[in-house]
Amino acid sequence: MIPFQKNTPRWLIFLVDIFICFLSVIVAYELRFNFVLPEEEISRIPRSIAVVLLVRGLSFIIGKTYAGIIKYTSSKDAERIFIVLVSGSLIFVLLNVFKFYFVNRAYILPFSIIIIDFLFTILAMTGTRLFVKSLFWEITNPSKGKKNVIIIGAGEHGLITKRSLDRDAGTKYKVIAFIDVDKNKIGKKVEGIDIYGQNELDKLLKDNEIENIILSVKNISPDSKDEIVEKALQYNVRVLSVPPVERWINGELSFKQIKKVKIEELLERDIIVLDKTSISKQTLNKTILITGAAGSIGSGLVKQLIEYSPKKMILIDQAETPLYELELEVKENLRYNNAEFVLCDIRNSERIKNIFQTYRPEIVYHSAAYKHVPMMENNPVESINTNVNGTKILADLSIEYGTDKFIMISTDKAVNPTGVMGASKRIAEIYAQSLNGKSKTKFITTRFGNVLESNGSVIERFRKQIEKGGPITVTHPEITRFFMTIPEACQLVLEAGAMGKGGEIFIFDMGKSIKINDLAKKMIKLSRLTLGKDIHLIYTGLRPGEKLYEELLNDEENTTHTHHPKIMIAKVKEYNNDFVNKKINELAELAKTQDTNAIVRKMKEVVPEFKSQNSIYKEFDELTEVEKNENSKK
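RESULT FIELD:
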């Protein structure tokens, strides 16, 4: 059995403390008289010891200084000891005053003895506890067996992180350095640990065998975080991240809460500054309807809109379980009780009409849609029924029931679409835009790329493949995508919705496009696996309708700026509503026939820039060109 594995009995701790008090009185007398005690003082010592032991013993029992577990001694235990000893010493002072003025003008204990006794006792009691604690940690968790750790952030969070490592015997980690960007901290120490600048991280990694780097700073910039992770990966060092304070258990951080850095964290960008006044003005005390409310963007909008105190929210989704989970979160965690959770398919016109008639929404956020490119390529009928007709039903009812704003969530795949899914979203955009100015309802479209942590995202797919041991599948070594976090996308949707005057297609600054190949390789490194040895990466070829590069039309020629640096307005062709309405009705009729070829040809007629890639429908592009030429000759 490991020594110190069992807790020290309380009675033993009490006896040790009493013995320390006994020694402290003798030491106090020896120091007071320079180790040469007068005869009269020697005779007083037994009485002094008896008084000290009696008072200290009673104060220890009342203050329960013996109740703490020695191997887990903390600042709270030291604080308790200090209070109990000060109280006891004050009793000595009061006894002296009483005896001097009311008995025989003599002291029970000289004041100098009281002071020396107090100082020696507090040092001895806390010192023995700390010694036993350090001895326990060294025996159960020897330094030689510990793994070296560097903590990023020498502030309060970094210190709490170090202490959580220190008190958890199972971690077997030793903090050898702090890294901080604050010049006032660099070169100093925190609890005996040196603080270095970020420029010294490379040398620390090179000179030491580091097991982990722990990110424990609140407002680290995305660029700094990425730089730290890149250096760590060069040396095969695992990177961990401390969760935000609000997620600490009972306000305390435990080592188990420190998790591996996720790839999503490395793709984050600087915090977006929102015009909260404008958003609040649009949202406060309004009835808001959100379709696809249980999806990634829909649920993100719900969470953010709650902060702006809408009068009521009608949350629509056809997925039963996700909608139920959203209901639990909204009611139990977000404490919002003015929401209606409606299980409904947006293609059901009668059901949707009843919802508009019952609740009269003032703002509609239309997020519901089919989004998987290969799936829609194989099911054009469903892309028309949901992405096009579903949008039409909602837009028409918004006009009928006097909705103020209709905000449609679109996709970058609607730009020069190469697949059925992108084309269906472009048709929905065209219809919504063509309705603007026909009524009081303002139609606004927002368009952005892939969303991190969304259902079915490539990152989730890679993560599952890594957990299974691979292989990781990438469609093409050069394929790139734009990425945005769910909160960021939702914030920009709210901002665009608030600033929109009607008829705009807002596009968001998605930052730099990312090579999916590089993304996969970084996720492999973050999992501390070696490509080609522990896990393989294979290329499967572009899927039907899939682009190699996504487009956002975010260059100067195709966009105009807004007051928000991350939001632009796309310059796109405007369509006549009668023409669009006719074509959509034709598509709806074709959808009833289940004739996929006819549907896709009609889609290409409505969206001339729709050019299929890696698809059986590519042949229709050639036919379309021939038809155009023939018509031009006529």
